[in-house]
Amino acid sequence: EEIWLAQCELVKVLPLSEILQWRIGIRSYKVLCRFLVEVMKPLAGIWVQRNPELGNVVYVMPGFLSVVGCRMIPRTKGWS
Q: What local confidence, expressed as pLDDT, does residue 13 receive?
């Protein structure tokens, strides 16, 4: 377990305090490390697709034992 905990830290997707919290809900650090490397790391960050002014900006971040993606949709100000 200690070896896999060290591997989770090397991925640098989550801070150590969050890794320890995630471990409560996951079977082992090995499983957590595989999740972080195969799922979380490739997705984390901000993605901008064509026409970001139309709301094609997606922010992906770690949730509670999950990955959360939020689409940002701009709003216009003024009179309608």
A: 85
Distance CA 3, CA 28 (A): 11
Residue 78 within any structural domain of the chain: no
Between 58 and 34, the higher pLDDT residue: 34
Give the model confidence (pLDDT) of 19-50 as tens digits. 999 888 889 999 999 988 988 888 877 777 77
Domain limits for position 37: 2-72
Please name which of 48, 55, 57 lies closest in space to residue 73, comparing C-alpha atoms.
Answer: 55
The single-letter DSSP state of residue 47 is: E
Q: Using only C-alpha atoms, what is the Rg of the chain?
A: 17
What is the Cα–Cα distance from 36 to 42, expressed in whole angstroms? 9
